[in-house]
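Sorry, explain these tokens?

***
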Amino acid sequence: MQAEEAAIIIKTTLQKLFEPLMERISRRLANKLILLFSIIIILVVTSLTFISYGMLRKESVNSSIASTSNNLLLVGRNLESYLDGIEQLSLPQISYDEITYAILHESEDYASKMYVESYLKNLYFSRGDLEAIYLYVIKEHKYYYVTKENYNITVRVAEHPPIENLTWYKRALNSPNNRSYQSFVTDSVEKGDYPVNTDTSFMGYHRLLRSIVSREPQAVLSLYFNSSVTDEIMKDIPFAKGEHLMYVSPDDEPFVVDDEEFFAKSAASGLLQQLSPAKGGQLTWSDEEEKYLVIYDINKKEGWKLIKPIPYKEIYEAATTTRKLNYSIGLLFLIVSVILVSFISNRITSPLKNLSLQMKRFSTGSFDAEARVEGNDEIAYLSRHFNKMVEKTNELINERYKMKIVEKNAVLKALEAEINPHFLYNALQAISTKALKNNNDDIVEMVDNLALTLRYCISGRDVVQASEELRHIERYLALQKARFGTRMQVVVDWEESLKELRIPKLSIQTLVENCIKHALEKVSSTITIRIEAHITPAYSVISVMDNGPGISPERLEQVLSSLQIQWEELGGDSAEDGGHESIGLKNLNTRLKLLYGEDAGLVISSDENGTTMDMRLPRGGHGQHV
């Protein structure tokens, strides 16, 4: 309720502010022209701005998709090559038998131990991005590790508990490629894992070395890499404000992310599950604060994902700047245009204002009005003809004045010759008095009913109360009773609450006359005419029914069609089209619509069991008298 009251107050306030302004604008043609051209300019500038903004937005999106997709594809291939290099590094291609033999005998054979240490040193020297190397001998529960100490590469051996419960070991054991990757972005080092410095390492690669004969795992080679190479590869991806970059494994484990909080939020919302080759490397994703265009590249070999979410607001920045510039130019253009339109329109409307003033003087009776004529344009043409009109009017005034005097005398004589309806009414009263003196009560009653009927008809009112119309119908039917006798039966069922209803005068009589014409006059049997009134949710309904032979379907169709004729055409009915037979119904239908609106009118139905005519008057204030 408070919101509705506030809306009403705002609406009322705006009306009070704008109504005087609009009234002031509408007083002068110049103001209307200024308003018209201003609206046209605003619409044109706004439309062009929105069109160009939409085109720029679309072009920006397409450009971002094309450039970013190509860039991610290139970087993704480089990362794929990087991973392939790591895999090749972890496999002892030529000396596999020697290294497996050395691992089996390193605890009892010094030469085998030295071979293992030499192999690990060579691995360490082969790459510049290696942080540490661990070789875990499963049956001995110890590992060799290579680290850099005081610029010297040292291989050490340390005892270590079993690693069977470590996550990365389980992955390598279950992998068909005997390897697994370990990320340090979100996962911390597990209990029982190697003492790895996660601050300098971004990824661990674990290779399971199996016996060629028994396929039993003998050792695990673990390589830990820093981000020097990946940083070099990733720098080829353009990075702007609000953008993010993520490199994710096929298992949706992050290895490179620029913002861990953003990754956690996107992963929780299911973004990673939406990435598939079927979507063409792009999709739209939204978080609680931003809407992103997500461009991604999925490695075809293993399924690594390189993902770059770009905020749409950054993509649309150029389009937004252009839109603001367009609005600024449009506003400047509007100001200049309003000034020019004001100047030109005032030059145009000044002669019209003078002409309007002279017309106003002429309309008030100043027949000496004369408009100023300047130039040869349409306004000058109009002013010259106005002056000629004033001149001709002055010439005709004297002639017309004389004709009016003659016409008034003729009208007075015609009025004197008319029959005064009151004289006829008084004459009927005199006849009634004389019949009463001669004890002719039937004649007295008929004459009185006729006199009261005549008086009701000439009363001059167009709308009466239903109770008055019912008293008139009672007198009218008494006169008809003298004609048809007991063959005419009348039943009136009228709710007492509806007797105050205001209805058109003679409306019920029109419907009753139709029953007499199409029922009583067509048959010799007894006919019952029923008059009733009732209320529906939408209408007050007055019904007049008879049990006569009914109206033929062809004639009923003609009558219903004639009710659709506009009231201006009523004077055109002719006997040829049967118009004189339904003129009363058409007149009544037209009066109802004029008095009560288009929802009012007659509804007529008829069959072999009789005819029903409903006069419907809208309720709820739709009409001026209901």
